């Protein structure tokens, strides 16, 4: 066969001469395929592990989180216990944990656990924060506990304990404090029917069965799959663009060789087949290598996220094998599509030195690639096995079209401006003539910047936004308590970082809004001279305004109990029933929302003293003994940590997209130089020099960078702002320091993509090529 001889004599030699370009293409494919095949392995193993742990994660067949005491509920539970239902209970208390100089705030879950009096089970996140392992010790509430184990997942606890971290003990004695949540773990019987029965008795509690936990797991897996598939789709698109552009550039570079070989009598079909064999010799091994690498990548990422390896051996190999065959088929088809461009090369046109018209081939290849690409996304969604993967792929394609359309519109506006500068006039006309390739460049650069923003700033953005949203609602940013209130107060007065503080005289009590129901609350007394950091008043009168016996409650308190200004609050304080008139509502910002504020009365006394502090740092606690501090940004830090852990997979995908984008844009710029080579000769022959061409390249680079930054930053801010407003009801806070790394990286990438090829490309001064144009 003629193509085999051509392949041995020509294509193998060219394969060796272009090994650098081919090496980059292969690396791009290896990484993209390894991540694409790692995603379904991660999701399958995570689902298997979580489904198998559903009962353990829930803690029992039915878990009930009770935020208050209900006599009717207690009686119902005791009745069920008498009917043979196993009932275990645990109380949840918020306390500081300490390991040497390291301090962290978390929850103690004290209940029916098979532990010694000095034994404690720590949640992994809290153990990592305290830098303690099994066999170590931690101090909680002035008592030393021995760490008898570390739980990799949150087993049978409430939502706050999972968020802050927790330690499980067999009992916890802390001056008779009432737990803010009591857990009831019920096993035996029909959990669904038990849930319905108990919910009718006390609908205000939170109920969770194993089936509920399984539904939560599936929802979380669908969300994770959708998020990962979005970046996979983008990385897949960028990798395909880099592969197609590399093939197209190879064809352009070899057009003279192709013309000569065809004039020697070799048919174009043989040339296409030989090139396809050459490319297949590269891409097929790259796909197989990527498939093999997906196994350790999936295992590493699962281990990083605390999911046990349950690959199942043969099942994982079958999944990887079928995925490898799928991607081999995909890349082979794209090779067949891309090599159709060889039909545009007419030997006599090339020999005469005329420019080859690629327009018709590009249009044909573009439509075939887009159509087949859509089919492959559907097939990949079927391979992953989740409809959310297909939905997210379709959404990202719509976004891609919108991004591309905006880039085209911007280019049209720029090129229509009446410039007087010869450089700008030439650059604008060049942009208009090559608007589609330039729009693709802007699109890929914008995606690169977007990947940098998502992968390396999303956790910081959400943390800063959450903290700013919380601090906007609160006039303080630290809560503190100590056994030496006088010492802390003196330190607050002497520390220049402290803008002010409010001293609270706290007593424990209960709200008895219904018969047999007791909600634990704190009654915090304030003195006028110590009320420096004021609460944000939403309605009514402040603490020292209006009736002296009136109290303030938080907006969350008001909404949960359905009461407001003018209502009487039925409470029990010190064992005595007391009715308190509500005269105002304050903003708690999600912190201490069950605090009742009132003027302090000397004869009442207090159980403890706490401080609300507005300070630029925590330097005020230096030298104060046994102090406990809590920053209001604790929840923001937790959210940032969760997102950072989840972004571990994102960063891999971001790296793929960034690498593919660089390769694609380098190919695109080099192809532009090849295509505009004769035009460059004309400009140099006119005496404008290579400097004019370099300045023209710099103008294109700056315009590309500005467009890409505007599009990517606008989209990033818009999406994050929408997500934060819908999920957390807060605005976005994006500091200049947060985006400094992505924007700086984008500037360097743009310089690399545009200026490096222009500087390194051989500037031949052979003006004889212009002879045919005279």
Automatic annotation (TrEMBL):
Tell me which domain of life the UniProt entry assigns to the organism this sequence originates from: Bacteria
Its recorded name reads: Uncharacterized protein
**What organism does the record attribute this protein to?**
Paenibacillus mesotrionivorans
From the broadest rank down, the organism's phylogenetic lineage runs: Bacteria, Bacillati, Bacillota, Bacilli, Bacillales
């Amino acid at each position: 066969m003629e193509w085999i001889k051509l392949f041995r004599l020509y294509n193998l030699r060219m394969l060796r001469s272009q090994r650098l370009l081919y090496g980059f293409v292969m690396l791009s494919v290896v990484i993209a395929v390894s991540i694409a095949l790692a995603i379904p392995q991660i999701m399958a193993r995570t689902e298997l592990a979580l489904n198998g742990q559903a009962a353990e994660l829930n803690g029992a067949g039915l878990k009930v989180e009770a935020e208050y005491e209900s006599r009717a509920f207690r009686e119902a539970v005791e009745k069920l216990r008498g009917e043979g239902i196993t009932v275990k209970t645990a109380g949840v208390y918020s306390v500081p944990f300490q390991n040497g100089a390291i301090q962290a705030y978390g929850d103690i879950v004290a209940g029916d656990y098979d532990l010694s009096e000095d034994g404690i089970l720590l949640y992994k996140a809290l153990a990592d924060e305290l830098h303690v392992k099994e066999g170590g010790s931690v101090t909680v509430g002035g008592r030393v506990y021995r760490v008898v184990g570390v739980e990799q997942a949150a087993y049978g606890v409430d939502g706050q304990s999972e968020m802050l971290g927790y330690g499980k003990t067999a009992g916890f004695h802390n001056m008779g404090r009432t737990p803010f949540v009591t857990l009831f773990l019920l096993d035996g019987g029909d959990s669904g029917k038990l849930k319905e029965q108990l919910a009718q008795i006390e609908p205000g509690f939170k109920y969770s069965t194993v089936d509920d936990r399984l539904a939560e797991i599936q929802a979380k897996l669908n969300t994770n799959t959708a998020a990962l598939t979005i970046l996979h789709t983008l990385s897949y698109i960028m990798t395909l663009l880099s592969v197609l552009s590399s093939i197209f550039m190879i064809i352009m570079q070899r057009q003279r060789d192709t013309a000569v070989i065809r004039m020697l009598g070799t048919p174009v079909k043989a040339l296409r087949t030989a090139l396809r064999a050459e490319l297949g010799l590269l891409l097929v091994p790259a796909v197989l290598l990527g498939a093999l690498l997906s196994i350790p990548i999936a295992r590493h990422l699962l281990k990083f996220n605390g999911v046990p390896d349950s690959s199942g051996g043969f099942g994982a190999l079958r999944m990887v094998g079928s995925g490898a065959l799928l991607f081999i088929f995909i890349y082979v088809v794209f090779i067949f599509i891309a090599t159709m461009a060889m039909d545009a090369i007419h030997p006599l046109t090339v020999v005469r030195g005329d420019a080859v018209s690629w327009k018709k081939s590009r249009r044909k290849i573009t439509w075939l690639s887009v159509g087949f690409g859509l089919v492959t996304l559907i097939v990949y969604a079927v391979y992953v096995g989740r409809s959310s993967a297909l939905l997210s792929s379709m959404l990202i394609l719509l976004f891609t079209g919108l991004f591309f359309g905006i880039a085209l519109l911007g280019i049209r506006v720029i090129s229509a401006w009446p410039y007087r500068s010869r450089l700008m006039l030439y650059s604008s006309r060049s942009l208009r003539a090559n608007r589609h390739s330039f729009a693709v460049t802007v699109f890929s650069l914008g995606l690169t910047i977007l990947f940098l923003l998502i992968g390396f700033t999303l956790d910081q953005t959400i943390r800063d936004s959450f903290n700013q949203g919380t601090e906007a609602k609160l006039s303080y940013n630290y809560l503190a308590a100590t056994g030496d209130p006088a010492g802390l107060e003196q330190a607050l007065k002497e520390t220049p970082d402290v803008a002010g503080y409010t001293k609270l005289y706290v007593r424990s009590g209960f709200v008895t809004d219904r018969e047999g129901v007791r909600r634990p609350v704190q009654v915090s007394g304030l003195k006028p001279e110590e009320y420096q950091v004021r609460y944000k008043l939403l309605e009514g009168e402040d603490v020292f305004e209006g009736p002296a016996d009136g109290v303030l409650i938080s907006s969350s308190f008001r909404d949960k109990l359905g009461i407001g200004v003018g209502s009487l609050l039925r409470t029990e304080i010190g064992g005595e029933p007391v009715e308190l008139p509500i005269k105002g509502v304050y903003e708690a910002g999600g912190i201490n929302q069950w605090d009742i504020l009132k003027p302090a009365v000397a004869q009442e006394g207090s159980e403890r003293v706490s401080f609300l502090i507005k300070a630029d740092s925590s330097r005020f606690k230096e030298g104060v003994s046994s102090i406990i501090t809590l920053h209001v940004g604790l929840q923001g830090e937790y959210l940032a940590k969760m997102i950072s852990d989840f972004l571990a997979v994102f960063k891999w995908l971001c790296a793929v997209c960034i690498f593919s984008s660089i390769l694609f844009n380098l190919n695109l710029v080099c192809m532009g130089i090849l295509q505009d080579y004769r035009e460059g000769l004309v400009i140099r022959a006119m005496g404008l020099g290579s400097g004019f061409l370099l300045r023209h390249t710099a103008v294109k680079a700056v315009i590309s960078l500005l467009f890409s930054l505007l599009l990517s930053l606008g989209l990033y801010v818009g999406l994050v702002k929408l997500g934060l407003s819908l999920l957390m009801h807060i605005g976005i806070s994006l500091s200049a320091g947060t985006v400094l790394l992505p924007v700086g990286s984008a500037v360097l990438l743009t310089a690399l993509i545009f200026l490096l090829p222009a500087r390194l490309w051989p500037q031949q001064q052979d003006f004889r090529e212009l002879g045919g144009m005279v």
